[in-house]
Design brief:
This protein is an alpha/beta fold. Helices cover 32% and strands 20% of the residues. The chain contains eight helices and nine strands. Helix 2 (51-59) packs across helix 3 (67-77).
Length: 259
């Protein structure tokens, strides 16, 4: 993704696990135990895993890690299956798209990655081509369009098997980027609703909300409100990781597993 980096990267330490437990309003669930099994997530016979377990394995074993790495580890530890689809709502410089493309091609592969952005799409394509193998690059579709239009591209569930949707909210980082072009609460909420409808059971939406720029805090609050609404529907759970007022906030929405 390519959202704003308007403030210093947030860092997690081990105490964060107990800190976020107190945030019952957002039902943040964190486990103190560290899972020692670091085998590939694609080896599991089930595509559904409670996110609290994934969070514990991603965060508790490392004393200090950037919030972006926490997000990436959560994605990697999700149980995935061949043919799963992946979505990057805010391609930007395509750093997150690279991660998703490699995940889509692990094991038996067969996965697809759909990327969206309203700017920088040609440079993003060049970045992907330089970073990925030909087969990985071939699994990516880039669309120069707003992230609120993902349902115009992806087929509806259950034809789509979307395992992971990611996005960085804010503006494109970089000295030459136009900081007036940034994600907006209205279109982000539409994208969140559409993405939630496309998720397969156990699938997640991972949004990193940057709040250091004008409008960032409002967008973050809008995302939290929509995540609460989804959770109240009974079909989703959400998790909110927040260390301090100016640090980026990680919001994860998971479609509940079907028993």
């Amino acid at each position: 993704g390519g959202a704003a980096r308007g403030q210093e990267e947030s860092r997690w330490d081990a105490s964060s696990v107990t800190e976020v437990e107190a945030d019952t309003r957002h039902r943040v669930r964190a486990l103190a135990a560290i899972q020692n099994d670091s085998s590939s997530s694609t080896s599991s016979s089930s595509s559904c895993a409670p996110l609290a377990d994934v969070f514990a394995a991603s965060v508790a074993e490392t004393s200090r890690v950037p919030i972006t790495r926490v997000a990436h580890e959560i994605w990697r530890r999700q149980r995935r299956e061949p043919g799963d689809d992946y979505v990057d709502l805010t391609v930007g410089h395509a750093k997150d798209t690279v991660v998703l493309a490699r995940m889509a091609n692990e094991g038996e592969g067969g996965g697809r990655v759909f990327g969206f952005d309203i700017q920088n799409i040609h440079q993003a394509s060049a970045n992907l081509k330089s970073e990925l193998s030909p087969s990985e690059y071939g699994s990516v579709e880039l669309h120069e369009m707003c992230h609120s239009l993902i349902q115009d591209v992806l087929p509806p569930a259950p034809e789509s098997r979307v395992a992971i949707v990611v996005g960085n909210l804010g503006y494109l980082p970089g000295a030459e980027s136009d900081k007036t072009v940034k994600t907006q609460p209205e279109t982000t909420i539409v994208a969140l609703r559409q993405a939630a409808a496309l998720l397969r059971p156990g699938g997640i939406i991972s949004l990193l909300c940057y709040v250091g720029h004008e409008g960032g805090a409002l967008e973050h609050q809008s995302v939290l409100k929509e995540a609460e609404r989804l959770q109240d529907s009974g079909s989703y759970s959400f998790y909110h990781f927040d260390r301090s007022p100016l640090c980026p906030k990680l919001v994860i929405v998971q479609k509940n597993c079907v028993n």
